[in-house]
C-alpha cells in the first residue's frame, strides 16, 4: 500500500508537469515568443504549485491514515492470536478438569471391583453422524485390547463392546448397534433375557430385550444388567431400564424396549475392561 501511494503520487505530479509543458508548447506554437512563455509560466506556476502542494498534502494524509490502519490491523491480528491461544488453554484446562472428574468416578467404581483391569480411551470419531451405534478409539492390541472387550463409562454403565481392533485403534459397537447380543438380567428376580440390537430401534437410541426366561414377567421401569454369560462382559454391569413392553405378532410373546442408562451421544471418554475375575 505504501509503495502504491508513492508510485501513484509521483505519477500525478508528473501528469501535472506534463500538462504545464503542453500549455507552454501551445503558447510557443502560437508565436508568443519568450515574453509570452514567461507570462505563461507565471500564470501556470502558481496553480501548479497549489495543486501539487494540495495533492502532496492529501497523499501524505492518506499515507498516514493507511499506515495507522496497517498498524491497527497488525495489532488486531496479534490480539486475535492471543485470544485464540487463551481460549485453547482454557479448553485444555476444562478438558483436564473433566478428565480428572471422570477418573475420580472410575476410582470409586474400581474400588468396588478390584479385579477389573481398565484401559482409558478417548473417542476419536463416530461411525455415523445420525446414530450413536459405533465409534473409534486410539487404543488397540498394543494396549492389551481384544475383540469383545466390555466398554463402560466411569460410572460403570455399559457402552458396548470392542467390535474390531488393530494395533493402535479399535472400533466400539455400542449397545444399540444392530449386531449387539448381550446376556441380560432383569429386575430384582434376575430373570435372564437377551439384549439385541434392532434396526427399527437403533435410530431411537434403544435396544430390544427378548427371550426372557419362561414364566418371567417384564415390567416398565425395571432395571436391566449384564448376566456375564459368554465370559466377555462381567456380570452386573448396568445396561438401562425397560421403557416399554411390546407383544410379538399374535400377542403371545412379550419383549421389552430398553433405554440405555448412558447418554451415548455425550460420550467423550470410555473405559475398557481388559480383564476381570470370571468367577465373580
Automatic annotation (TrEMBL):
One of its GO terms (cellular component) is plasma membrane. Gene3D superfamilies: Rod shape-determining protein MreC, domain 1 (2.40.10.340), Rod shape-determining protein MreC, domain 2 (2.40.10.350). Residues 127-274 form the Rod shape-determining protein MreC beta-barrel core domain. InterPro entries: Cell/Rod_1, Cell/Rod_MreC_2, MreC, MreC_beta-barrel_core. One of its GO terms (biological process) is regulation of cell shape. Keywords: Cell shape. Involved in formation and maintenance of cell shape. Belongs to the MreC family. NCBIfam families: mreC (TIGR00219). This is Cell shape-determining protein MreC. It comes from Candidatus Scatomorpha intestinavium.
